[in-house]
Amino acid sequence: MSVSNKVRLLDRNGQPYSYVLQGERNWHLPVKPTFNRQVYAAAHVVADPLQMQNPHSDMAIDWDATLAYRRHLMSLGLGIAEAMDTAQRGMGLDWPTGLALIKRSVEQAKSYPGARIASGAATDHLTNFNGLTVQDVIAAYEQQIAAIEACGGRIILMASRALAAIAKGPDDYIHVYGTLLRQVREPVILHWLGDMFDPALRGYWGSESIHSAMEVCLAVIRENQAKVEGIKISLLEKDREIEMRRQLPSVVKMYTGDDFNYPELIAGDEQGYSHALLGILDAIAPAATSALHALAQGDRATFDRILAPTVPLARHLFSAPTQYYKAGIVFLAWLNGHQKHFTLLGGMQSARSLSHYCEAFRLADQAGLLENADIASERMWLLAKLHGI
Question: Rounded to whole angstroms, how far apart are CA atoms 248 and 237?
């Protein structure tokens, strides 16, 4: 065992301890991945700290590294969910920069036959909700939808903080979504993001009761099913996802957004299964590709064996406050050599503690997700040293 395979970490009680890397991959990447699920990885952006004068406001993106990471994901057979909350949409990434990202991704994907790119349309360029009307929200959505469609993109219709702030009840949601869905060029993926991911979305669909909100969402889907390709729900409650999945029209897909329970939801049961649109896929992409390939070959045991060790890591990264999970996603990309630094837009690398990152390092190692032990351990050592360990 080389010295580089031993690092000093911090435990949950703030005490340093020595950790010896031990994770080994018990799986191999398929030469040509084949899936029987539609799978999108919500991809992060790589900030450019050299161009960032004001970390709280500058939209400084390292475009080369950001696009290279998308090529990495596409080479593994994964679709890209672009400009979503994993890319810090609404938490560092503004709409103009998000659109620039979408345009680059859509153009790049043309070099990858069969590559799937779906991009988030929202209302995040509306920042002042005073005096805002439902028609203003519709117009804001229309602006982003038109821009994405103009560059050849497919739409993920994201939740709107503005709509959550001004809606008087379910009828406003039904009106807004019905109006938009009648206009879109191609069927979209709806995105129901829970308030654990974004507290500003509490009471979405006009109710704080999940069951009541679900009925409103289902009513929108049933009324407009020809324009709804699927829905992603991110509520971190597997039973609610299954409940809704069983009520969807047969032509509408359920995309799991449950970063706590994704293996069993993707595998499904005798009544159906979920496809995937997940932030955690950014961090566990090689393992996910191998597992999904095995599932497509009818090998559920291998699927479960590969993904089981990734779940403790996912639950750790997405632990409360869940909206800060992006820091852990970027941390793992840095450990694995996909970017030269550990910096996020808005200085969000400070959103998690050193002990959080130390535990993420340990769990990633045990899941076999550290691609190069020497690079990962050196970078973990640097981060620990920077914090005084």
Answer: 17
Cβ-contact 45, 57 below 8 angstroms: no
Judged by DSSP in three states, 69 sits in helix
* CATH number for the domain formed by residue range(s) 28-348: 3.20.20.70
Cα–Cα distance for residue pair 154/80, rounded to 1 Å = 11
Hey, how many other C-beta atoms are within 10 angstroms of the C-beta on 131?
A: 7
Q: Is 367 within 8 Å of 313 (Cβ atoms)?
A: yes
User: Over the stretch 171-228, which tens digit does the pLDDT of each residue have?
Assistant: 999 999 999 999 999 999 999 999 999 999 999 999 999 999 999 999 999 999 999 9
Contacts of range 17-24, beta carbons closer than 8 Å, 24 or more positions apart: 19/361, 19/362, 21/365, 21/370, 21/373, 21/376, 21/377, 22/365, 22/366, 23/364, 23/365, 23/366, 23/367, 23/368, 23/369, 23/370, 24/368
pLDDT, tens digit, for every residue of 52-74? 988 888 899 999 999 999 999 99
Q: Which of 94, 98, 214, 234 is nearest to 159 (CA)?
A: 234
pTM of the model: 0.96
Q: How far apart are CA 263 and CA 81, in angstroms?
A: 19
What are the domain boundaries of the chain? 28-348
